[in-house]
Amino acid sequence: MSFLDLDERLIQIAEKASLVYSPLVDIKTFPDWVDLTLVEGAVSNMEDWEKIRNVRQHTHTLVSLGDCAITGNVPSMRNQFSANAVLERSYHENIELYPQIPRDMVPHLLARVRPVHEVVKVDVFIPGCPPPADAIFFALSELLEGRTPDLSAYTRFGS
Amino acid sequence: MMPEELTELAHKEQTDAQQWQHQIHVCTATGCLSAQSDQVYTALTREVRDRGMDKTCRVKGVGCLGLCSAGPLVQVNPAGTLYQHVQVDDVPELVQSLKHSPVERLVCSTDIPFFQQQVKIVLANAGNIDPERIEEYLAVDGYQGLLQAVTEMTPSEVISEVIHSGLRGRGGAGYPTGLKWTTVAKADSHQKYVICNADEGDPGAFMDRNILESDPHCIIEGMAIAGYAVGATQGYIYVRSEYPLAIKRLRNALRRAERLGVIGNNIFESAFRFQIDVRLGAGAFVCGEETALIASIEGRRGNPRPRPPYPAEAGLWGQPTLINNVETLANIPAILRNGGGWFATIGSSQSTGTKVFALTGKVNHGGLIEVPMGMSLRSIVFDIGGGIPNELAFKAMQTGGPSGGCIPETHLDMPTEYETLNQIGSIMGSGGIIIMDETSSMVDVARFYMEFCQDESCGKCVPCRVGTAQLATLLTKIAEGMATPEDLILLEELCDVVKHTSLCGLGQSAPNPVLSTLRFFRHEYLAHIRQ
Amino acid sequence: MSRLSQQVVTLKIDGRDVGARSNETILEVAHENDINIPSLCSVEGLSVVGSCRLCLVEVRGTSELVSACSTYVREGMDIVTHSERLSHYRQTILSLFFSERNHLCAVCVSNNHCELQGQAQALGLSHVEVAYRYPQLPVDASHERFVIDHNRCILCTRCVRVCDEIERAHTWDVAGRGVQALVITDLNEPWGSSETCTSCGKCVQVCPTGALFEKGKAVAEMSRRRRFLPYLAKTKEKSS
Ligand SMILES: Cc1cc2nc3c(=O)[nH]c(=O)nc-3n(C[C@H](O)[C@H](O)[C@H](O)COP(=O)(O)O)c2cc1C
Ligand code: SF4
Fold first, then answer.
1. Per the domain annotation, does C91 fall within a domain?
2. I need a labelling partner for B366 at 20 to 30 A (CA). Which of B435, B447, C11, C54 fits?
3. Over the stretch C202-226, which tens digit does the pLDDT of each residue have?
C-alpha cells in the first residue's frame, strides 16, 4: 500500500524501471533475471522459504521492505511458542466445530518465523511499519542511480 | 601478647615435635577428603592407639600434599615416605610397617620431577603443619614476619620490601603489589580496609581453597602485615560459601589468632590494631571482580561498577581499600622474614617468585603445584605433570580459565611469565591449568567457557549479557556442524565487540578462549563449517 | 562517586577546545557543548551505572574506550566521540539490545517515543545481524495504574534508581544473572501487591522504552514527562 502511496512518483520510477513480477501481475513464475527485487513479509513457512531462495538466485539487488521482512515483526510473535502450540491454538482450542489441523493445502510452518536476511543475503533494508512512501522513493531513486541509500533520515523500525 | 611469648611458644612446639618417633601426616584438604581420607585418618588414629603406639607415634591431619590425583595421600615422617591411594584396609599394614620397611605397593616415589622441581614458598607449610593448630604455624616461624614489621619497621619500610620483592598480584592481572600498597597507603583517610579475595570462581582452579585449608594463618599474617603497611584496621576475607572446610579452618584460625593476640588491639604491644572478619559469597564468579566483591560485602547485589575510581582510592564504603588475592597475601610473611631481595632472586626478572597452579586434565600427575616463575610451560606439562596418559599426544594447555586461552605445542617452550602468556593470547590467570590431549575438540572447549561466561555474566552491561549468549549460540551452531562461513565472521566480530565494550573484566576477557582457539586451531573451526 | 574538588580544565572533544570543571563527566561536558553522545542508561538526576555502553568514546593516546557517563574530564584530554569503530560498536550493541527480548516497535505503546527506537534510527541501524532470541517473558499488570512488560525492558535500571534515589521507596531491584536478569518489585512479588510502591509513577516516566507504561495507553500513546527529575535530584542533594 505504501508503495502505491508514491502516487505520481510511480511514473518517474516507471520511466527508469519496468515492473516484471509482483503478486499482482499475470506471470506466475519468477523471471530469470531481475535487477531489483523488493520483498516484504517474514519467512514463516516452507513455501516462503523456497520462494525467497528462488528470488535470491534470480536477483541482483535484494531489498527487504518493511519491518516484517527485516525484524520478523508481528508474525514473529509466535516464536515464543512452538509451531505445534500455535497450530493447536488456532485450529483446535479456538474452534468449536470440527477442529482439525490442516495437513495438505496449507504450507508447513517453520519452527520459527525468520527475518529475510536470516535465510538469504539481503543487500538493502528499508525499515518501517509501514515504510513511508518518501523512504521507498528515496531508496529506489538512489538504487536506480547505482548508489546505496542511507535511509536513517526517512524511516525507522516501527512507524 | 609480648614478642617473647611468641618465640617461647614456637620453641615449645618445636621441642614437643621432637618427642615423636613417627609422625603420620594424612592429607585432610578437600581433594583427599573427597576420597575419604578422613576415614583413613580415623582408622590410623585408632590403629596407633590400639597398638599402644600413641606415645611415640602421632597421626596428624595436614593440608594438601600436592599430588591430588593420587589421593588419599599419607606421609610418614621423619622418613618422608609418601603413600598414595591409601584405603582404610591398608591401615593395619601401614602402621605395622613403621617398625620395618615401607609398604612397597603403596609407596609413591618422591624422586619424580613432580616433587623435585617444585619450589615452595606459598605451600611451604602445606602438608607439614596441622592447619587447625596455631602452635604448629608458630613453630615454623609463623607470625615472625608480622612481629618484625610491627616492632622493627615503619609502614613505608614494609612497603619498600614488597616493592623490592617484585611481587605481582596472583589474582590474574599481575598488578605490582607494592605499587598497589603504596597507593592505598598514600590515600588520605581515617578509615581504610584490607580485603582478601578468596572468591576463586574459575572452573578447574583450587589454589586458593587449598592454601586456606592448608595454611590459614599465613593469610591472616599476610593481611595483618598489609594492614600495618597501608594503615588499615579492618580486614575482610571474602570466601565463597562453596568452600565450607576453608571457611571452618579460617574461622578457627582467626579465633586462635585473636586469643593469642596476634590480631586484635595493641598487636605485639604496639599501637597497631587489626581485626579480620570473614564474609561469605554465594559463589558467583563475577563476585571475584573487585568492585562487585566490594558491593557484595556492602550487602548489595554483586555487580561491578566502572573504574576509576579504583578501590585503592574509593573502595569498601567509599574508603581506600587494598584488595589482594589469597596467594598474593600468602607470599607476604615469607617476604618479610627473608627480605624482598631474596624473593626477587626466585623466578624471572619481570615475574618474580613462584606460582601455584592447579594442574588438571590429561596429565599423569595432577594436583596442586608450585613452581618458580619462568619455568617453561613444557616442563610443567611433561616434567611436573609427567606427560600425557594413554600414549596420546598433547594438544593444548589451557591457562587462565574463562578469561584465558589455549596454548598449542609450538609455544610450549615459552617461560611462565605474565607478559609471555599475554603475548600468546592467554593469561597467567589465577592458576588453573587444564591439559588437553589429541581427543579434545577445541570448539567444544571454547563453547564450554563461553557458556560458563554466559551463566556467570552479572547481566549489568549489554555486550557481555547478550554478547556471551549470542557467542554461545554461535559456538553451539558451529560445534553441531550447522554454521556457515558468515557465522564464523559474525563470531569474530562479536568477540571484538564484547572484548572492547564490556564494562568489567568478565566480559572483556570472555572472548579470549574463542580468540585463542581461533588463532591456533582455526582448522578445527573450519572443519565444522558448512560450505 | 566522589566529587573531587573543582578545578577548571580545558580539553578537546572532536577537535573542539572546550572548558569544563574537573568534577564533570565527559558526557556532561559534551552535552553542554551540544555534542551528542548516544546513551540509554544515563539520565540527568540519577546515579551513573555505565551499563548501556553506547557512550563509549575514544581518548587519544590510550587504546581503551571509556564510558563518557562515568569518566571525569581531565586537563588536556583529547576525546573522539564519533569514528567508524565507535559507530560499528554502537550499532552492534543496539543489535544486541534488539535481539535480546521481544521488541516489536510497530505494536508498542512507546512507538515514536522510544529511546531505543530513536537510537537505532540515529545510529543508522537498518537491521539486526545477530539472531533474535525470542525469550518467553511475563507481563505484570497487577498494579492498578501501571504495567511492566518485560519483553521490552533493556535493564537500564533507571526505574530501580529513580525509585531508590528519588522516591526513596526501593520497590524495584534486579533479580537473576546474565540474560536471565529481570527487574522485580519487592521480593519478586506482583507489583500490585507491593507494600513499598507509592504509585508515584516516577519509574514509568523514566523508562526509555515501552516496558513500563500507564494502563489504558494504546500503540504509540505513551510519551514521558521527565522535567521533574533534575529538580527533585537537586532538592535531594540539598537536603542530604
Ligand atoms: C570476572 C572476574 C573474576 C575475578 N575473580 C577473582 C578471584 O576469584 N580471585 C582473585 O583473587 N581475583 C579475582 N579477580 C581479580 C580481582 O578483580 C582483583 O584484580 C584481584 O583480586 C586483585 O588482587 P591481586 O592484585 O593480588 O591479584 C577477578 C576479576 C574478574 C574480572
Ligand atoms: S562485563 Fe559482564 S559481568 Fe561485567 S559488568 Fe558487564 S555484564 Fe556484568
1. no
2. B447
3. 999 999 999 999 999 888 888 888 8
